[in-house]
UniProtKB/TrEMBL annotation:
Main location: nucleus
A Pfam family the protein falls into: ORC6
Domain of life where this protein originates: Eukaryota
Domain ORC6 first cyclin-like: 6-90
Keyword Translocase: no
GO CC, one annotated term: nuclear origin of replication recognition complex
Alphabetical keyword list: DNA replication, DNA-binding, Nucleus
Name by which UniProt lists this protein: Origin recognition complex subunit 6
GO-annotated molecular function: DNA binding
Amino acid sequence: MDISMLARRIGISDRAVQNKASEYMRLANTKLAGASMGTGEACKAAACLELSCMMLQHSIDSGALQKHSGASATVYRNARAMLQKLLGVKTQTHPRDLCLQFGCVRLERPVAAALATFKQRYVAQVAIAQRGTVALNKPVFVAAIFLAVAQKNKVKVDKRRLLEPLGVLPTEFAAAATAVASLMPELSTGSSAKRRRKPEGAEDEAADGCLAVAASARLEELGSSDEEEYDAWKTAMLERRAAEAKANDPPSGPLRQATLTYNAPAREKGSSCM
């Protein structure tokens, strides 16, 4: 559907919004280089129009756009997130903004403190070579920590409403949430004993989750035309992880059973056996 026609149907008369959406459409077609978005191709115009409204801070009914696009809600959300990453449409993500959005200003300091602690723990437990591969200020980590702090404090947060403006895919958020849960067990909503006890292999799960987010960002930077370079980078990262894990493993030589020696008690003088 044409963007101008779609804009008229949902009541958007601002020419700046329509022009920005048309610009996003041309840029997306250029970056995709003729490739199709699959099922999300049908809602490309609607997604570009919503991204334009988001960028120019123009109010928009996302549900109405999704209905006019003719795609299901899941297909539309995934297509919009994909285009947002492809076009580089970034939104400001700060703990204060999220707390204001969901009406929990009192959580601003706990969220900021948890984010700082997460960064310190992650940097402390990964190799020096891997520290530069993950941008811990990415919106996905801020969202994951905000959701964990909100759940601990029994504040209801609509995860869909949280992730939609950030352009975060469900798989990317799941990887970040795994890393946060592994390194921040005190944010768990379980019993206090479970919160204090760090699960076995937590460092590996956290590193895997952060590596998954890094891989997604790396593939986004390289683009579809550099898949060989991405594969080489991913292989090198996995080999480095395997070498570090092997170096930290205990020796696997044969185990020897210890011999215990018991000394008989000394007999007292003058004692005799009956």
